[in-house]
Amino acid sequence: MGLVEESGWPAAVVRSRITMAETLSAERTLEPEKMWSYMRRLLDRLYGVLDSDSVMDDCLDIIVDLLGADRGLILVTHADGGVSVVNARGQKKSLTVEEREEISKTVIRQALDSNECVVWDPLAGADVSKSFTVLGILCALAAPLHSRGKPHGVLYLDFRDRRKFVGPQHVEFFMGSAMVL
What we know:
The chain is of the alpha+beta class and 181 residues long. It has 7 helices and 6 strands, in the order αααβββααβαββα. Helix 2 packs parallel to helix 7.
């Protein structure tokens, strides 16, 4: 097992605690050098937790942390077409059963059906659904997770803080993160 700090978190996660000012969503645009620097940080941190018992939670925490998302979920698909949450994180903790339901199922379904990354951003002209307004979701991202070339799940993030930005480079970073999982 990897080094674990007194907090119970793997050392790789603790080493790079990030404030909002340091997250990618704190930047309106991203320079390629910064984006790739963060991708290297992602990979460094992922490799630091790969031997832990909570590898998926740790990986999701890292992605949520680096992008500055408010919630992140990993969902798996079932043979009947249904999906279920296997990991759900926000602010370095597991989401409650109720919090796991406060997501955009429409964006998740669109990602699975299209087999492509889906970005819901009302500022880019996306229609605002009642559930987005009620839940306070300002932006949502969903990307299919693949195994042997077929989608087997979805990585989902949403943002609820008006001070955060999600632009094309943030989406590119998110898609790269989904490929790592």
